[in-house]
Amino acid sequence: MLSILALIYALAPPLSYLLLFSLGLHRSAVIDAGIALSCVLLALSSFKRLPFAVWLCSVTIVLLSATIGYVHHFRDSGESG
């Protein structure tokens, strides 16, 4: 029960951001959705066996976005919205 509450607490801000920008048809919403889905799949892989290709794709997306975020300043919602 506590893990479900933690999951809701962790996903609420990114999902609200995603909803806000997807309604405005902003391209960053697609990127954010891909990163969020990858994170959810990686968390799910701790509890359930996923195909290796799915796991590898998720790890690649997260590592690539983290590397790009390290060298490039992404604007937050107040700057880009």
Describe this protein's structure.
By secondary structure, this protein is an all-alpha fold. The protein has helices spanning 2-23, 28-44, 52-71, 77-80. Helix 1 runs antiparallel to helix 2 (28-44) and helix 2 crosses helix 3. The radius of gyration is 14 Å and the shape is globular.
Keywords:
4 helices; 0% strand; mainly alpha; 81 residues
How many extended strands? 0
Query: So what's the oligomer here?
Result: single chain
The profile of the biggest β sheet is: none
- Termini Cα gap: 36 Å
N-to-C series of helices and strands: HHHH
What form results from the Cα inertia axes? globular
Strand content: under 5%
Q: What percentage of residues falls in helices of 4 or more residues?
A: over 70%
Q: Return the average pLDDT rounded to an integer.
A: 78
> What is the CA-based Rg, rounded?
14 Å
Strand pairing plus helix content: what structural class?
A: mainly alpha
Q: Unreliable stretches, pLDDT < 50, 5 or more residues?
A: none
The DSSP helix count reads 4
